[in-house]
Design a protein that fits this description.
It contains 7 helices and 18 strands. With about 425 residues, it is of the alpha+beta class. Among the domains are: about 60 residues, no CATH class; about 230 residues, Beta Complex (Beta-clip-like). The strands form 8 sheets. It has a 3-stranded antiparallel beta sheet with strand order 10-17-16, covered by helices on one side. A 3-stranded antiparallel beta sheet has the order 11-13-12, with no helix packed on it. A two-stranded antiparallel ribbon has the order 1-2. Strand 12 and strand 13 form a beta hairpin. Helix 3 crosses helix 5. The protein is globular. It catalyses: L-lysyl(27)-[histone H3] + S-adenosyl-L-methionine = N(6)-methyl-L-lysyl(27)-[histone H3] + S-adenosyl-L-homocysteine + H(+).
Amino acid sequence: MGHKKKKQSCLCYICRETQNLAPNVSSSHTINECHSDPKATHLRTLFRSARHHHSHHHLHLIFSLTPPFMAPAALRQRTRAPKPIYKLPHSPSSSSLGYDSDSDSDSDPEYADVFCEECRSGTDGPNLLLCDKCDKGYHLYCLKPILFAVPKGAWFCPNCSGDRNPKRFPLVQTKIVDFFRIQKPSAAMEKPMQDNRKRKRRSGGLIVSKKSRKLLPFIPTDDPNRRLEQMASLATALMATGTEFSNELTYMPGMAPRSANCAALEKGGMQVISKGNMETLILCKKMMERGEWPPLLVVFDPKEGFTVQADRPIKDLTIITEYVGDVDYLQNRENDDGDSMMTLLCAIKPSRSLVICPDKRSNIARFINGINNHTPEGRKKQNLKCVRYDVNGECRVLLIANRDIRKGERLYYDYNGLENEYPTEHFV
């Protein structure tokens, strides 16, 4: 017959605190010998010593012990900090911040004073990100601009990361032409195409039903110097984010092949682009190839990061741009920390679903922000819609104006237009 073994206590060799729970104590011997080991050490004390020599994500590898050696709750995730169990210095009282000392009695005092440097609150631990240099905390949604997910690599707070103002791309025509690989046509070729566009716009009837309304090509800015400024603003944003310019979907080795982009696999079917809209899309692509770009300007906002605004009035149903980037299987990106992935294909078999990943290669679409679709004010900002088309049997994603847009107005669309999976409640 077995009998219940009496719990014994031991003294932590470093902090000299008595502990009678074996799973929280580390020893050079086995866990059964830990009770009698006079040099047993609290794991949290070891963690405290090691945290000054390793980044947080490295510490999790060092201390990722499994039961019975260490309970999972004892691990502190990189974004997880216990709520304070005592009043924070130079901060509002714990009661005003909603702290509950009774419910946090099990919190580790070593991290009890971790709080967000912006809102001064230690609540919402899973969203409290710690700087890998100064160890200060910031809520993901308190950062400016906010972060969608926890970065995989090292992360440094605004104070430790230094100057964050992006370096401007030089306003030099040759550099801009080379950066965007612009193919300048002869003046003889350019003028007939412009005249052709004008004739097409006048040829339509005055009475047009909503169902038959066609997509419109964007109208570039007339001033060539202003167009250079627009392109330079995009080049600045691309360089600041380490992104290579691309105006087409790209299929890289190790990711989804082009053959996987089959619109026929779409669950419920995908709308086929009409002949007229196809011609408009081709026209927009050709205009961009020769340097006639959409009248858009990329600006840096301290709260929202890079944003895109109209540099001239844009009419409803105008094609703004195509959403491009590397095409990959959704299952390969489920744990990706990218904040700009776009659904390309929702297949019946989830393993065949595709996403567009603009983190390495992209165009201006990456910098168009999303609305806060949790508030009426946020929803009113939407002036673009995201539409997926079957174009010659392949899936393509277009951003289209869904109303008239004024000059200077920032562009927004609904990130959750297809799937309600993007957290936008903290968007400006």
